[in-house]
Amino acid sequence: MLDMWQYGFFWRGIIAGLLVGFLCPLVGVFLVARRYSFLPDALAHVSLTGIALGLILHFSPDIVTVMVLVAAAWLTEWLRNKASVYADALLAVVMAVGLALGVILISKSRGFGADLSSYLFGSLLTVRLQDLKTITVALVLVLGMVAVFYRGLLAVALDEEYAQAVGIPVRHLSLVFIALSALTVAAAIKVAGVLLTGALVVIPSLLGAFLGRSFAGTLKVAVGTGVLLSLLGMHLAYWGDLPPGPAIILLGAGMLVLVILGRRFAM
Fold first, then answer.
1. By C-alpha distance, which of 127, 124, 99 is closest to 195?
2. Which residues, 6+ apart, have CB-to-CB distance to 143 below 8 Å?
3. Cys-Cys with 111: which of 35, 51, 55, 76 at CB 3.0–4.6 Å?
4. Going by C-beta distance under 8 Å and a sequence separation of 6 or more, which residues neighbour residue 261?
5. Tens of pLDDT along 198-235?
6. CA dihedral (188, 50, 138, 88) positive or negative
7. What is the pLDDT of residues 59-92, one digit of tens each?
8. Can you list the domains of the chain with their CATH numbers?
9. Taking Cα atoms as reference points, which of 219, 206, 213 lies closest to residue 255?
10. CA-to-CA distance for 148 and 167, rounded, in angstroms?
11. Which residues contact 225 (CB under 8 A, 6 or more apart)?
């Protein structure tokens, strides 16, 4: 089994998984605290539109996907501000429209073929050096924003009205953070796939919320858990000849169930 480390594709897959495992909870913890945890799942489904559009236009699907996701994220944020009572329903509509449009475009595109499965569920074999660069850029941008604007992001996540009252530029901060959330989703698709990227963002964040004793503690636990799940999931995917996305998510879901049961019996 140790011969897997001799393959370049496995090294790229492991590095991508570790970077994504670090990146997704950085965004997810703030989204979960903001009760916006459905956003990554909605954007991941919208990404099908960007991928198919890029193939149809014969332009980089990665760049087109990022542009489509950022536009969809900003549109969702604008709609949420206009009708905050229906935020969860609006996310469901955005996801459905993005998925429907993506399916229509896929039916008109000849560029998917056997790659459709890797887009939907992730694949160790399809991670390229360019993907690693994209994930690294996303991680650096998100880390920089969290480091510089941590207090502002925390205030907005916990109480948006209070943050606005104390002079925090809520609107601008939200737009930048939502755009970086879209970039995170675009970066994670290669590892977890369209259908499971949302769970990769949310599950480590929930584990952090259950195990952390403060928001900073939650963030640290979530990031550590995300990295651990990605590492274990990638090995499981290789050994079992499985798509990495489902392997990582099932491990995370199992860990989440154990933590919930452990807390219940400990009370």
1. 99
2. 26
3. 55
4. none
5. 999 999 999 999 999 899 999 999 999 999 999 898 88
6. negative
7. 888 899 999 999 999 988 888 877 665 677 788 8
8. 24-266 (1.10.3470.10)
9. 206
10. 16
11. 25, 204, 207, 208, 211, 252, 255
The Cβ-side half-sphere exposure at 172, using a 13 Å CA radius, reads: 6
Question: In whole angstroms, what is the distance from residue 51 CA to residue 130 CA?
Answer: 16
Burial 218-249 (b: 16+ CB within 10 A, else e): bbbbbbbbbbbbbbbbbbbbbeeebbbbbbbb
Distances (CA, A) of 164 to 38, 76, 156, 157, 169: 24, 20, 8, 12, 7
d(CA 197, CA 160): 26
Radius of gyration of the chain (CA): 18
Find, among 10, 100, 83, the residue nearest to 48 by Cα: 100
Q: Are 205 and 29 in contact (CB under 8 A)?
A: yes
109 Cβ neighbours under 8 A, 6+ residues apart: 52, 55, 56
